Amino acid sequence: MNFPRCVDIFCRVIDNFGDVGVCWRLARQLAVEDELAVRLFIDDPSSLTKIVPIPDPSVNVVVWDNALVYGEAADLVIEAFACDLPEQVLSVMKNRSIPPIWIDLEYLTAEDWALSCHAVPSLHPMMGVKKTLFFPGFDVTSGGLLREHDLIERRDLFQNDIVAQNKWRKCYNLPEFDSNCIDLSLFCYKSAPIEQIFDELLTYTCPVRVFHPVVSGFGVKKRGSLMIYRIPFVSQDQYDYLLWTCTANFVRGEDSFVRAQMAGRPMIWNIYVQEKGTHLVKMRAFLDLYLASFPLPLREVLAQSFELWNQEDQICEGVWKKFLDHLPKLDRQAQIWSDRLCCQSPLTVRLLEFYQNTKNNVLIKKDKL
Amino acid sequence: MKTAQELKPGNVVVIDSTPIVIQKAELNKSGRNAAVMKFKFRNLLTGGNSEAVYKTDEKFEDIILETKQVSYSYEAGDMYVFMDEEYNQYELSKDDIEEVLKYLEEQMPCEVTFYEGKPISVTAPVKLVREVVYTEPAVRGDTSGKVMKPARLPSGYEILVPAFVEIGEKIEIDTRTDEYVSRVK
User: Fold this and answer.
1) CB distance B53–A124 less than 8 Å?
2) In total, how many domains does chain A have?
3) Residues of chain B found within 8 Å of residue A126, distances taken between Cβ atoms
């Protein structure tokens, strides 16, 4: 097998926790599951500490600042989210006796163009080293999604164990599971119309409990039949349990978005806002795929909810009540979607397969010469 | 130097010391993803075709090559024949003129680019006028020009035009972006 022995991942933290979240998850999987020597070069280690208080020692976290001297390139170099590798790093890669396989790991998108640009090796115009854009995705021909090998097993155990759920909830001062209540986790950007959803749900027919991780201002608020629990920011691993224990999840960014799909529960995505509304194109491409197998009424409910959650100045008109009304049916569809994703090989497997194939091609060409 | 986003079909650049002619260039951008250009190109030394994807700000060394004004004459099998003012004929393959095909009409003025004496690509004029041979009827009352609909050109290629454009009308097109510019009366 032509696996890399060592992997370098470069990550610049732009804002929030999405980029570092994905990079850490990737690094840990390659190190723990594939037993590779992984170095994670990160320009803002403090952002990693917030989502991973005690990093797994199998990943070597290296501070990426101006003083960094990159001594030796790994077999596989991953530039996360086109973070622009410094000249010195490029020079070390170029001068390596066997050039590394250089991957630019891109953001997740369901748009067709990403599939056509995925895994097309392209010779760097100046350096003569091949760089390949690697697009995570939902399709078997894409780069796939990050998923630990035991994730679904752990999820199912937890979701079928009310005692374990209540024990976990207690750690965060959350109320016990109650089949008469709807529990929603809420993780979103500031632009999301939170007050609008709260206003509408405070008169809902059954009690609604919102679990809202925040940086400060913890506590419980009651508004009509709505209870809002502001809990401390949870780590990446603990966040999975929050998603698994809730009836539905409001998530944001990329890593949480993927984890919510793996949770097999209904979810609403708050997408990172971009100029000229390009994020809405991306969101609708996902909806086209995600909702394709949903029955028509459910498709409309969920599409309306996504649109409302991601655009300012939209009129609510009972959208959130409809969303809650349809939760049992949406739950079934979310499970089907999760099963479909989990039938596919995860991103790390596809990444290493790509590495293997590329290496084999290089060897074949050398043999011919 | 040119950035990837500035490169157009017909441009010749050097990639790792090899001259490459761009045959097709496609811009893609969404959400937080880096904007990327997907290229189809031909290696001018080996004649091999390939694809590559670059970030739009990637820099390339471009080569200025000899060009000549020609007009399109006729199709001969798999080749397309262009003629200059001295009646010299230049044959190019479908791959070499892929981006021009959608506007190609007899006597259409073009620019042929040569590499070491051989024609390698054809560029269409920046602005062209073409007739709309089919489009859906206009929506009454919408004169804003913001609502767009597909319109078919004589070549069969479709571009987006404002809703008020009708069948039989002539429109000006920017061939660099394949976008509607205006109606021509």
Assistant:
1) no
2) 2
3) 16, 59, 61
pLDDT tens digits for chain A (369 residues)?
A: 578 999 999 999 987 788 999 999 999 999 999 999 999 999 999 999 989 988 889 999 999 998 899 999 999 999 999 898 999 999 999 999 998 999 999 999 999 999 999 999 899 888 878 999 999 999 999 999 999 999 999 999 999 999 999 999 999 999 999 999 999 999 999 889 999 889 888 889 999 999 999 877 789 999 888 999 999 999 999 999 999 999 999 999 899 999 999 999 999 999 988 887 889 999 999 999 999 999 999 999 999 999 999 987 777 788 999 999 999 999 999 999 999 999 999 999 999 999 999 887 665 554 443
* B51 Cα to chain A: minimum distance (Å): 7
E strand spans, A130-201? 130-134, 182-186
Interface of A with B in 124-163 (CB under 8 A): 124-128, 133
Q: Which residues of B are less than 8 Å from A133 in CB distance? A: 36, 53
Distance CA A45, CA A33 (A): 23
- Other residues' Cβ atoms within 10 Å of the Cβ of residue A87: 7
Identify the CA nearest to A172 among candidates A261, A232, A262, A96. Answer: A232
Q: Which fold has domain B2-63?
A: SH3 type barrels. (2.30.30)
Residues A186 and A58 in one domain: no
Enter the ipTM: 0.78
Alpha helices in chain B (DSSP H): 98-101
Q: A with B: how many residue pairs have Cβ under 8 Å apart?
A: 74
Any idea which fold B128-184 has?
A: OB fold (Dihydrolipoamide Acetyltransferase, E2P) (2.40.50)
Amino acid at B122: V
